[in-house]
Amino acid sequence: xxxxxxxxxxxxxxxxxxxxxxxxxxxxxxxxxxxxxxxxxxxxxxxxxxxxxxxxxxxxxxxxxxxxxxxxxxxxxxxxxxxxxxxxxxxxxxxxxxxxxxxxxxxxxxxxxxxxxxxxxxxxxxxxxxxxxxxxxxxxxxxxxxxxxxxxxxxxxxxxxxxxxxxxxxxxxxxxxxxxxxxxxxxxxxxxxxxxxxxxxxxxxxxxxxxxxxxxxxxxxxxxxxxxxxxxxxxxxxxxxxxxxxxxxxxxxxxxxx
Amino acid sequence: xxxxxxxxxxxxxxxxxxxxxxxxxxxxxxxxxxxxxxxxxxxxxxxxxxxxxxxxxxxxxxxxxxxxxxxxxxxxxxxxxxxxxxxxxxxxxxxxxxxxxxxxxxxxxxxxxxxxxxxxxxxxxxxxxxxxxxxxxxxxxxxxxxxxxxxxxxxxxxxxxxxxxxxxxxxxxxxxxxxxxxxxxxxxxxxxxxxxxxxxxxxxxxxxxxxxxxxxxxxxxxxxxxxxxxxxxxxxxxxxxxxxxxxxxxxxxxxxxxxxxxxxxxxxxxxxxxxxxxxxxxxxxxxx
Lengths: 258, 288
Prior knowledge:
A: 80% helix, B: two-stranded antiparallel sheet, flat
């Protein structure tokens, strides 16, 4: 990849990041800060000695939930809104390849999410320290896995946004993300619905992204060890799936007639 | 237009809390969370929050604590109807939340007005806990204690405590306690040993307070027994029972206060000569 190509990719990514900041996406951090402050102040009194675990649970779940919402609802607009507003045409008229635009958008939103998750992690650690609890580095493994899952959500949102309108893309992305959270249910569906065709269930199980893979929240909150091998396999899975979805999206984006 | 809207806002902002106050006054400040009755089972709740089971369990645990505290403090009939379903949902969502089993069992088992007075449900919660956390000797110890203290089943209690003693890291005295349970008599002393263990193991909070209260109850019943013995001695010396505990105290035979540790006087049943804890006292129990 040439230097010029890299610099164009970087420019699109930086512009996408600025755009998300302008859209006040990072305002969710204010809500997170309030949530963490109240958790720190109140949970200890309400929960009977479960404050540390509950603060960790709230922090990690918020990261995942807010991150997923941002990834879906900003992700689906990155390409489709440009098409709907016709602001894509002047961009494509510039010396900018379609894949540079597409990947730049992905990297820009990925960076926004990295900033978001990073600041939330700092907020979670500060809350733990302020309540006299240790800032357990084990939590970083769960945060890392959450971030991998968010990258996959961004890739999916971009894929759908490159083939349909932003509204439909939202519906499809939400559907796949929710479906992917039920992967284990799909796998064991025949136990409750013996008539369900096994080939279909197997197909769904292998095809849908398994978002349960990225869920180390519980283990981190209870201080269970998470092996490097487990994180390595999850990273490989995320990398393979993200690249696959990005390639599909790129193919579809390139095939579109603008 | 803007001024009118601002005026409307000025009226509405204080009106909302005022109206809420009227609703509370009408329906009672504490309203039972009836909606929990419609909340299916723990498995159903789990199915709708994939990936967020732990935080859902936390929320249900907070609700359980609030519900228990609310019922105990404000509810008229104190039926604790939703307590078991709430604990069930909490522990289904997070089977490793040990505190929910331990506290939940106490909330359920203690007799009213302290708890729900449903020891079988309390024991069922602990049994689920021992299945979910087989390496927790404390949960199994509590299960053994509850079989003895609330279900009055020393054989089962001894069996469970023996199992608990075999779990790595278990307290050394569990096996000896299990053997003692099978010996006849001295039930109050056995209960005292169990409550003292629970008191010493618990951190500050509900479990410790409850264990301390139970120890005070046992002390009060011991004091009542000593007074009963003093009444018998009085009768032997004077040929009649004392007319009141005041007379017993004046005779010098009482050798201790005639009120319990909460300041409520013990009661003398002149027909039997027995002294007991007053039903007006918070230390009164019908299970000793």
